[in-house]
């Protein structure tokens, strides 16, 4: 299922164009020196990848707990359903319950720190911008984190989120060079494709958890995502 992380990242980057595109456009990069600009953009992306990998480590450890408890198949089904619900339920429904209220102060501090970094032009500030950018709330990142939980180990949780982050890089890099990608008509078109892909990935997780005996797609054995310890009987 690791392949789904990169695909989800590619599709999520369409969402990132609208949400994080302005951040990418404001990066304090050197527009006069193309070689330096490339290294600065890479530094920004390394910051984002570090953030995603860190979160993947935490959720991978959580998934490991479910795996050791023998709940991996049920968890896979739950995760698939959750992925689908996230994209189907209107954002205004979640907004009514204000799930982010307990961490509002943390998010506010992240945004404040992010704003201060744009005044600097060092590689450290570019890395920090990417790092803070990766920690900002994002619905598609939440979907990816469900996948990280299903990986059943900390290492694979990190790898899942790393692949997700790598999938977002191509389009996020293009945005820095081509501002026209942020125009409203384009954003409206790409937003329509995102739910379909997320639903397909959610269905794959559900099938994986059902253990229907379909090779690779829905294997009947309990080791769904990570190769277990060889049976040496």
UniProtKB/TrEMBL annotation:
Residues 5-204 form the Urease accessory protein UreH-like transmembrane domain. It comes from the Bacteria. The chain crosses the membrane at residues 6-29, 49-69, 75-95, 126-151, 157-182, 194-217. Keywords: Membrane, Transmembrane, Transmembrane helix. Pfam families: DsbD_2. PANTHER family: HEAVY METAL TRANSPORTER, HEAVY METAL TRANSPORTER-RELATED. This is Urease accessory protein UreH-like transmembrane domain-containing protein. It comes from Flavobacterium johnsoniae.
């Amino acid at each position: 299922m690791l392949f789904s992380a990169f695909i989800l990242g590619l599709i999520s980057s369409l969402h990132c164009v609208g949400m994080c595109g302005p951040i990418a456009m404001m990066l304090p990069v050197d527009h006069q020196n193309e070689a330096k600009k490339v290294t600065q953009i890479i530094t920004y992306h390394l910051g984002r990848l570090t953030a995603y990998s860190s979160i993947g480590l935490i959720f991978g450890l959580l998934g490991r707990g479910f795996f050791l408890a023998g709940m991996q198949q049920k968890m896979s089904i739950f995760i698939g359903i959750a992925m689908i619900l996230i994209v189907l339920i209107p954002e205004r429904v979640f907004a009514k319950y204000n799930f982010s209220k307990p961490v509002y102060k943390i998010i506010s501090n992240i945004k404040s720190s992010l704003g201060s970094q744009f005044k600097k032009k060092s590689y450290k500030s570019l890395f920090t911008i990417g790092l803070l950018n990766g920690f900002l709330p994002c619905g598609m990142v939440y979907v990816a984190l469900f996948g990280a939980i299903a990986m059943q180990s900390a290492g694979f949780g990190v790898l899942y989120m790393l692949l997700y982050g790598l999938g977002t890089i191509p389009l996020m890099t293009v945005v820095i060079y081509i501002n026209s990608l942020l125009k409203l008509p384009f954003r409206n078109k790409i937003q329509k494709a995102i739910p379909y892909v997320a639903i397909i990935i959610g269905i794959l997780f559900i099938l994986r958890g059902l253990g229907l005996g379909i090779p690779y797609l829905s294997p009947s054995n309990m080791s769904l995502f990570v190769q277990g310890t060889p049976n040496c009987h």
